[in-house]
């Protein structure tokens, strides 16, 4: 019995010790949980932030270290509830950090959740070869930029540069005091800060530079020598070529990267072509085409060659006989030189003239093609249509030269609403003294014929001259209104329609003015005023010297002012 009691006491002691240990473990776990950081987020793409403010001084030492709670990346859309800070992971150790409670987009740098650079910077650039190759990040504060070395956790370049671009070879294009130069990663000046602008020449280690006098040259940034002296008023790389197009005085030429002229002659104009090495040149006021070796492809005898080709590569040109046609950059003719005049239309087609008659040449749809022969007295382009006339009769063609409205009318006016592409396009057509509305397919919108039809410009949008409706005069000499589909919305019972403001019509009847809402089809102001004026959302009515604020909902509640 004694042994049993001893055994029972031992068991009770073990249970008590186990419970105590469990309590300590739980407490420790709870404390650990309150400080445990969440897993850092996946790296997300960031954009470089524009720098706007002047920088305060930043020292390598003396920056307070603040421990902040690690959370998921706010920029990735997982803000983490009430967590104050959002992190953007750079690598396993470093993250950029932002205070979500701040309205300013300021960024800092943290290491394992510890803030080592304060949240005051306008931008921290952590992508690209600068980080991959050098483990350095570009940081902007105000209008200045510098480099921070993640390996040493020190500033590698001070925050003094207006811009700082890594050039892949350990060099940087930098801007200091408003001028550009080249420095190495130890901030040693390779090329002095004296250039107004620098841009890549298309060849490694060669940069197009601009002086403060706006003269252009080419600089070898390794040797700090100009291979092309800064003596040109313009200089640009020719696409798909090793040469550069330069301007000196009023003349142009091609040069090599070591400033050797490609052409024997200097030209008034050189128009390059990205798909071939031939180019349009101008000499003594005349145009032609040469290749990159200055061999003549098209004689330099044309008074005009268009600067830009159509989709098929054809250029509009005028030959020495005064006839228009089209040629390719290789000199082949794609449209015969037989037209007296060519005018480009809104639709992109060419309005052609031959022997004082008009036609249409289609371009940008394959080779230039005559789709309407020169057989009309006049052709006018109006966005999606052509208004044609012959022997004092009028009709309408579509963009492909097909007839929309037959050539039988005495007059045609094209009506388009505020939609540029004219989905509600109508034609006001007059024949034998009667006026009718034709839809965009050329069909009559109703059987009604009128004495006249005129556009009514919306009074709430006169700047763009948007059409609100069409007013007509009926057989009884009274005025009515049509909508932009040609349907009658007011009968011919009024003396005049003065304006349309949105869906409200101001009409005149017996020398008095009233209002009609053509959507609700109700008279909303009786014709008892001398004038009705819309001004900034308020409608005023005038009777003699009395003025009222009109109430469209209840005509009995107009307010006299």
How does this structure look, described?
The longest helix is centred in the first third of the chain and has 34 residues, at 2-35. The chain contains 2 helices and 51 strands. The strands form 13 sheets. Strands 1-5-4-3-2 form a 5-stranded antiparallel β-sheet, with no helix packed on it. A 4-stranded antiparallel β-sheet has the order 6-7-8-9. Residues 1-7 and 21-82 have low confidence and may be disordered. Strand 12 (179-184) and strand 13 form a beta hairpin. It has 561 residues and is mostly beta strands. Helices cover 7% and strands 49% of the residues.
Itemize the secondary structure elements and their pairings:
Blueprint: H1 2-35, E1 66-67, E2 85-89, E3 94-99, E4 107-111, E5 114-121, E6 123-125, H2 129-134, E7 136-141, E8 144-149, E9 154-161, E10 163-166, E11 171-176, E12 179-184, E13 189-195, E14 197-200, E15 206-210, E16 216-220, E17 225-232, E18 234-237, E19 244-248, E20 251-255, E21 269-272, E22 279-283, E23 286-290, E24 296-302, E25 304-305, E26 315-318, E27 324-327, E28 333-339, E29 341-344, E30 350-354, E31 357-362, E32 369-376, E33 378-382, E34 385-390, E35 393-398, E36 403-409, E37 411-415, E38 426-431, E39 434-438, E40 452-457, E41 467-473, E42 479-482, E43 488-494, E44 496-501, E45 504-509, E46 512-517, E47 522-529, E48 531-535, E49 538-543, E50 546-549, E51 559-560
Antiparallel strand pairs: 1-5, 2-3, 3-4, 4-5, 6-7, 7-8, 8-9, 10-11, 11-12, 12-13, 14-15, 15-16, 16-17, 18-19, 19-20, 21-22, 22-23, 23-24, 25-26, 26-27, 27-28, 29-30, 30-31, 31-32, 33-34, 34-35, 35-36, 37-38, 38-39, 40-41, 41-42, 42-43, 44-45, 45-46, 46-47, 48-49, 49-50, 50-51
